[in-house]
Structure formats: structure tokens, C-alpha cells
């Protein structure tokens, strides 16, 4: 009889053969600008630790203290016995930071999207989504029983067309939910949110923004994309985000009206049925919000680094694509070349991963670099000269 698990090895082998498997690099210590990866001291250019908060002393101390006062785990899911005072405080602090009526914290950003989206739109409803939205949004949409429509990436005119078509449907959708990433993680471009919000408003649609890469980065004090564009709170109905990037810890969240939060925690299955954050996580997240409110220099430095790096790379002849944020892709084109460049950079002690098909189109391979406020100007110069040497060698510049 055939081994029922034979497909595991067959499919894995196929991934290896097509070079589509993940070869994991191992961090032997903290995620700092200079860190040890696979036994080599390298400059980290591919983490989402935008503000360097994952090693901020206030976050570390808060986590240690919470273990002392509250233990290692929460013991339950939030609705049963897993809501601690730290979780409640975090939600209050986050809502204040976001200038929202209320916030709700999920275990991860993925859990927020996968848990909430299918509850916001169901049978008879329509979800309209940017074609390059994050996988967790795509999964959230898949879990919903709503109809789905996709508009071209960041294309407000196409969104208008899709919404117009929806209006002419018979029967018309009961509810329409428009979803977009705020900052797109492959290109570092920003969604045209004012246009999207206007169209959503004109068509009576709900607007959901995944601001995982905008929080801690865009807007006054890093308050995110809605703040960046000065959009009124009632125009973005769901602001979703994560504590795993600029906030330096882990966890997802949504902010908006009290009605949204009341609905979300009573309906999201990921929230209701999965264990809550350990105290150390909640406490470190509170400290991260605190740091964002009291130490505005980190966001400033992040942007100074971003402008300097992008300008220097462009002057050398590199193509930084459509980047408008601290996510700076270095466009290479062909996958093999992007892999070679990443390998050469690693030899030069710069850690930056290639982004290749199927994550991006076959001819749009790139090295994605991500800025970090904890780096110094000389770290950036180190990276720029490594790129210059490797880029010339491979005929990219
Ligand atoms: N949305 C976007 C746009 C993301 O980039 C990510 C993380 N890759 C997530 C959601 C998921 O967030 P988390 O890591 O907190 O699960």
C-alpha cells in the first residue's frame, strides 16, 4: 500500500528542485542593526524592526517585570479567563495613541485579518480588494462567504469602476467592504487613501485599511496612514495594524468606533478561540506605545535614513522602484541575479533578502531593503558601498 504521507517528501523535493523552498537564516542573538546570522556578523537590512524598538531598554524591562508580576502565560483565551489588566491597559493606550474611540488587540496581525474580515462581510455582501493586498487579507476574504472583486493595484479609477459595477448588480450587495494595505510591503508604495476613502464614502462602503507597515512610520508621531493623509476618523472605519513591525514586539490590532470593537471581539473566531498574549508581550507593547508617544526622534531618524539611503542608491544608478517609505526595493529584474546579489551582499556582511517569483512577477525580482532608526549613518554608508561593489560586479549598475 502506498504511504499516505508520501506527498510530503515529493512536494518538498519539488520545491527544492525549483528553488522555491525557504532556506532559513538563523539569528544568533538579538535583532540589532549589527547581528550574528549563521555565524557571521552582518548589517541587518531586512527586518521590519523600523524603529529598533525590539531591543529598546524600556520594552525589555517592561517584559521582564510583567513576568515577575503576572507570570509567563495568561492561562486562557481572552473571553474566558485570559483577559488581564495588562491587555485592557494596552487597548486603552493604543486607542489613545491612534486617536480612536476604541482598540482591540489580537494575537497577531494575521489573526486580526483572518478573524475580522469574514465577520464584516458575508453572504450577499461584496468585498473589494487591491490586487496586491497582503496574504492575511486574502485569507480573510477567502474565509468570508461574500462575493469578491479585485481592483488594479492602487488604481482609484479602477476601484471606481468596480464599485460602479457593484451598484448595477441585481440584487445589489447588501454591504460593501473596501480593503487595502496602507503601505505595500513589496514595493514600499502608499495606497491613495484619500481617493479610496472618497469613493468608499460615495458608494456607501465600509473602508478597512491594513496599516501594518504605516504605523510607527507614517503620520504625526508614527500614528499611521490615516493621520498621514489627515483623514477624518469616520472615513476609515477599520484601522488594522500589528505590533510585530515598528512596535518591535508581536500582536495585531484594530482601531475604530466602540461599536466596531464590541462587534469584533464578540465575533472574531481567532480572538475568541485562541490563547491571549503572555503578560510580557502585552507589557512590552504598552511600553512601545509609550516610547512612540514620548520619543519622537526614532520616527524622525527613520525618515532621515530613508531619504539618505534612497538618494545615495539612486545616485549610484540603482532603481528603487516605486518606494515612498522606509521599504526600499533595489530592482534587479531576473530572479537568478537577485539571488546572486543577495549572496554577494552577505559575503560583504550585508543581510538583505531577494524577493523573487512567486512573491513578485518573474521579471520584477529585487533585493528588498528596510531602514531601521537604530542604524547609524556609517552603517548606511557601509551598506551603500557593499551594494556599489556587488552591483558593479553583477552589471546591475
Ligand atoms: N498585514 C501586512 C501588510 C503584513 O505585512 C503583515 C506581516 N507580514 C501582516 C498583516 C501580518 O501581521 P503579523 O506579523 O502581526 O501577523
What's the arrangement of secondary structure elements?
Layout: H1 6-17, E1 34-37, E2 40-44, H2 57-70, H3 85-98, E3 102-106, H4 109-120, E4 126-130, H5 135-143, E5 147-151, H6 156-168, E6 176-181, H7 193-202, E7 206-210, H8 225-228, E8 238-242, E9 252-256, H9 258-267, H10 269-272, H11 279-294, H12 297-316, E10 327-333, H13 335-347, E11 350-351, E12 354-355, E13 365-370, H14 377-393
Helix pairs in contact: 2-11, 3-11, 4-5, 6-7, 12-14
Bound molecules: 4'-deoxy-4'-aminopyridoxal-5'-phosphate.
Can you tell me about this structure?
The protein has 397 residues and is of the alpha/beta class. It has 2 domains: 15-44 and 296-393, Aspartate Aminotransferase, domain 1 (Alpha-Beta Complex); 57-294, Aspartate Aminotransferase, domain 2 (3-Layer(aba) Sandwich). The chain is built from 14 helices and 13 strands. The chain has helices at 6-17, 57-70, 85-98, 109-120, 135-143, 156-168, 193-202, 225-228, 258-267, 269-272, 279-294, 297-316, 335-347, 377-393; strands at residues 34-37, 40-44, 102-106, 126-130, 147-151, 176-181, 206-210, 238-242, 252-256, 327-333, 350-351, 354-355, 365-370. The strands form 3 sheets. Strands 3-9-8-7-6-4-5 form a 7-stranded mixed β-sheet, sandwiched between helices. Strands 1-2-11 form a 3-stranded mixed β-sheet. Strands 10-13-12 form a 3-stranded antiparallel β-sheet. Strand 1 and strand 2 form a beta hairpin. Helix 2 runs antiparallel to helix 11, helix 3 (85-98) runs parallel beside helix 11 (279-294) and helix 12 runs parallel beside helix 14. The model has no long low-confidence stretch (mean pLDDT 97). The structure holds 4'-deoxy-4'-aminopyridoxal-5'-phosphate (PMP). 4'-deoxy-4'-aminopyridoxal-5'-phosphate is lined by residues 108-110, 113, 134, 136, 181, 185, 210, 212-213, 242, 244, 252. The site of 4'-deoxy-4'-aminopyridoxal-5'-phosphate has 14 residues, from helix 4.
Amino acid at each position: 500500500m502506498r504511504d499516505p504521507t508520501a506527498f510530503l517528501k515529493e512536494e518538498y523535493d519539488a520545491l527544492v528542485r525549483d528553488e522555491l523552498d525557504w532556506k532559513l537564516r538563523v539569528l544568533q542573538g538579538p535583532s540589532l542593526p549589527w547581528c550574528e546570522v549563521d555565524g557571521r556578523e552582518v548589517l541587518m537590512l531586512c527586518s521590519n524592526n523600523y524603529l529598533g524598538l525590539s531591543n529598546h531598554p524600556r520594552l525589555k524591562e517592561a517584559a521582564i517585570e510583567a513576568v515577575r508580576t503576572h507570570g509567563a502565560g495568561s492561562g486562557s483565551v481572552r473571553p474566558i479567563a485570559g483577559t488581564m489588566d495588562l491587555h485592557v491597559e494596552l487597548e486603552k493606550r493604543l486607542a489613545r495613541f491612534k486617536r480612536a474611540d476604541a482598540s482591540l488587540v489580537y494575537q497577531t496581525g494575521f489573526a486580526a485579518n483572518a478573524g475580522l474580515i469574514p465577520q464584516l462581510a458575508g453572504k450577499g455582501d461584496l468585498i473589494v480588494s487591491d490586487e496586491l493586498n497582503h496574504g492575511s487579507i486574502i485569507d480573510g476574504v477567502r474565509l468570508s462567504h461574500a462575493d469578491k472583486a479585485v481592483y488594479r493595484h492602487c488604481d482609484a479609477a479602477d476601484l471606481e469602476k468596480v464599485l460602479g459595477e457593484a451598484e448595477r448588480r441585481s440584487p445589489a450587495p447588501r454591504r460593501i467592504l473596501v480593503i487595502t494595505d496602507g503601505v505595500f510591503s513589496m514595493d514600499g508604495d502608499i495606497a491613495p487613501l484619500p481617493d479610496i476613502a472618497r469613493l468608499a464614502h460615495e458608494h456607501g462602503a465600509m473602508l478597512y485599511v491594513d496599516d501594518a507597515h504605516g504605523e510607527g512610520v507614517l503620520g504625526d508621531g508614527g500614528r499611521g496612514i490615516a493621520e498621514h493623509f489627515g483623514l477624518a476618523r469616520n472615513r476609515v472605519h477599520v484601522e488594522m495594524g500589528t505590533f510585530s513591525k515598528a512596535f518591535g514586539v508581536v500582536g495585531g490590532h484594530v482601531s475604530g468606533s466602540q461599536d466596531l470593537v464590541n462587534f469584533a471581539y464578540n465575533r472574531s473566531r481567532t480572538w475568541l478561540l485562541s490563547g491571549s498574549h503572555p503578560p510580557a508581550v502585552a507589557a512590552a507593547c504598552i511600553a512601545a506605545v509609550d516610547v512612540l508617544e514620548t520619543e519622537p526622534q526614532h520616527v524622525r531618524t527613520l525618515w532621515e535614513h530613508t531619504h539618505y539611503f534612497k538618494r545615495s542608491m539612486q545616485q549610484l544608478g540603482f532603481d528603487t522602484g516605486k518606494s515612498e517609505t522606509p521599504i526600499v526595493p533595489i530592482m534587479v529584474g531576473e530572479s537568478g541575479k537577485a539571488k546572486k546579489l543577495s549572496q554577494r551582499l552577505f559575503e560583504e556582511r550585508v543581510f538583505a533578502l531577494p524577493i523573487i517569483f512567486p512573491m513578485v512577477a518573474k521579471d520584477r525580482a529585487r533585493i528588498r531593503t528596510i531602514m531601521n532608526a537604530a542604524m547609524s549613518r556609517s552603517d548606511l554608508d557601509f551598506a551603500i558601498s557593499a551594494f556599489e561593489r556587488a552591483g558593479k560586479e553583477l552589471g546591475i549598475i
